[in-house]
Design brief:
- The protein is α/β, with parallel strands linked by helices.
- It folds into two domains: about 170 residues, Rossmann fold, CATH 3.40.50; about 100 residues, Nitrogenase molybdenum iron protein domain (Rossmann fold, 3-Layer(aba) Sandwich), CATH 3.40.50.
- Helix content is about 40%, strand content about 10%.
- The protein has ten helices and eight strands.
- A four-stranded parallel β-sheet has the order 2-1-3-4, with helices on one face. A four-stranded parallel β-sheet has the order 6-5-7-8, with helices on both faces.
- Bound molecules: zinc ion.
- The site of zinc ion has 8 residues, from loops.
Length: about 290
């Protein structure tokens, strides 16, 4: 009995994150006091993860659910949250952590967006985890919530989040120096996921191979995108590794631009978020 109580007193926070980037930041903030799992793999499209029963089982034991919000996971997460029957992670619970509340959101639609039309960015652009500066704010927000869930270690969580932010700050000048050539450069993306990376590194997203977020390219839209790319002098087409490369490759070829494929997420738990961004900078430097 005593042993059971001791175990209970020292139980780690069980954190389930939807995406590996959020898992990596949760791990950085929670340190030794959390057990973190990611629902999606870094090679999976975060808009369309299979809502497999084993994910509901994971959620049923979670103290915290860390998610992107802005409808990023709306196609698969609500079913799992309901299926978990875990009151601690339901919408409105302290353990249900929508990280979009901690960042400045880009591409908010001016009017109403009908998801039935296929646009998967109806609440604004959910790909903010592509900007390391915004992830500092996410870390501080997570520290606040982890501290509410586990007050005993609240100060540790805050200190860990501050250390994470300091680590990002220590890397930013070097990253920004290496990507200085991106300032003002016209770039095309496959999906409209690059707004935050553009906001950080200064490139300009002048088009997307998808006609709307989540809608596969049509020949007509591809032709229009190629023309736009030629007119604006696009040198680079960006695509995440989980998308089919055919259309993006065609646009890059016709526009005489480079196609750069990036692995969307952190390879959690083998890679930290900072190491992931570092790998992106390696890939991006010299691609322009
Ligand atoms: Zn998207």
């Amino acid at each position: 009995m005593l042993l059971a109580l001791l175990n209970l007193a020292h139980a780690d926070l069980n954190v389930v994150a939807t995406l590996p980037d959020l898992a990596a930041v949760s791990q950085a903030v929670g340190g030794d006091h959390v057990k973190v799992t990611s629902m999606a793999l870094p090679t999976q499209d975060p808009h369309f993860v299979d809502a497999k029963p084993n994910l509901a089982v994971k959620l049923s034991k979670a103290d915290a659910l860390v998610h992107v919000g802005l409808e990023m996971e709306i196609g698969w997460l609500p079913t799992l949250v309901t299926g978990s029957r875990n009151k601690d992670v339901q919408s409105g619970a302290t353990g249900n952590i929508d990280c979009s509340q901690y960042v400045t959101v880009l591409d908010k639609p001016a009017g109403a967006v009908d998801r039935a039309m296929g646009d998967v960015h109806g609440q604004g652009n959910p790909h903010y985890f592509y900007d390391p500066r915004r992830m500092k704010d996410v870390a501080l927000g997570l520290a606040d919530r982890f501290g509410q869930l586990d007050p005993e270690f609240a100060e540790v969580y805050t200190a860990n989040a501050q250390a994470f932010a300091a680590d990002i700050d220590a890397h930013l000048p070097e990253w920004e120096r290496r990507l200085a050539g991106y300032q003002g450069a016209p770039v095309i993306g496959y999906h409209r996921s690059w707004s935050y990376l553009a906001d950080w590194t200064g490139f300009s997203v002048v088009g997307a191979v998808e006609p709307k977020p989540g809608i596969p390219p049509t020949p007509g839209h591809i032709a229009k995108t190629v023309n736009g790319a030629k007119e604006t002098g696009v040198q680079l087409v960006l695509i995440e590794s989980f998308y089919p490369a055919t259309s993006a490759s065609l646009v890059a070829d016709k526009a005489e631009a480079t196609l750069l494929t990036l692995t969307a997420g952190t390879d959690f738990p083998r890679q930290t978020y900072v190491a992931h961004i570092d790998a992106w900078v390696d890939s991006m430097e010299g691609a322009l």
